[in-house]
């Protein structure tokens, strides 16, 4: 089992894009586990980088990191966010009508991608965050809070929010204002702007097979969950082919895989995040918890 002294974990909130399957909630722990068990001198390859939570945490810890994801839209979005400012982030909040107009566009920009991501239920870019009955009210309230109070977090303390609660008591979920929470998460990425100038983010859009020649590095791998995708449907990712590849590359690298379970007996659990459970579509919590896996014994 890998060790973790939680007292040494970086202070402050984790950062990264709101993205399905993101490891943002445990990213600080993952990087501290890597540091405490394997040191800080080896480059880290975040090959299934997604919303960039692991990459961002590496940068904030002063580690050399390579950010990769096969989906160019998400790496473009990450780079777009860290190159912009707080005022630009405010433009990402959109109404229900705008959401479906953008969704219907044949050619979408990176900003379009981000608007769909931030304003969709479960960050799936398919369904608007709020149902039709309540969407206008929540959108207008969010815009008013941003414009009058210039806040993404702490909105519950604003007079605008308090008045709205008194006026619309029937809206039990109004306090969630998930759009603002999503924007706050994006706003936190602003802290990476100064690091971007150091040219430490190396974003690529390759298959994991393209990293077969890497040696002497730490590979953090967060592949699609075995057998199902984030919404519980069967996916096309060949997990067994991936496990064969990971087993081979572990002969010359430190390989750490994030998953809930791995059917291949060559891998074992080396750390379990007992409080990190998956929330499936619809808000239901799955009893499985996130774990880190490594090869049992590559000498056999």
- Low-confidence stretches are 172-179, 278-286
Widest sheet, order of strands: 3-2-1-4-5-7-6
Morphology call: globular
What's the oligomerization state? single chain
What is the helical fraction, as a range of percent? 25-40%
Count, helices: 11
Count of DSSP E strands? 7
Structurally, the number of domains stands at 2
What is the strand content? Answer: 5-15%
Alpha-beta content class: alpha/beta
Mean pLDDT score, rounded?
A: 82
CATH architecture level-2 label of the largest domain: 3-Layer(aba) Sandwich
Q: Looking at CATH, which topology of the largest domain would you report?
A: Rossmann fold
**Alpha-carbon distance between the termini?**
19 Å
SSE ordering: HEHEHHHHHHHHEEHEEE
Please identify the top-level CATH class of the largest domain. Answer: Alpha Beta
If you had to describe this structure to a student in words, what would you say it looks like?
Helix content is 36%, strand content 15%. It is α/β, with parallel strands linked by helices. It contains eleven helices and seven strands. It has two domains: 20-70 and 206-295, 3-Layer(aba) Sandwich (Rossmann fold); 82-190, no CATH class. The radius of gyration is 20 Å and the shape is globular. α1 (27-38) crosses α2 and α3 (72-83) packs across α6. β4 (218-221), α11 (239-249) and β5 (254-259) form a beta-alpha-beta unit. Residues 172-179 and 278-286 have low confidence and may be disordered.
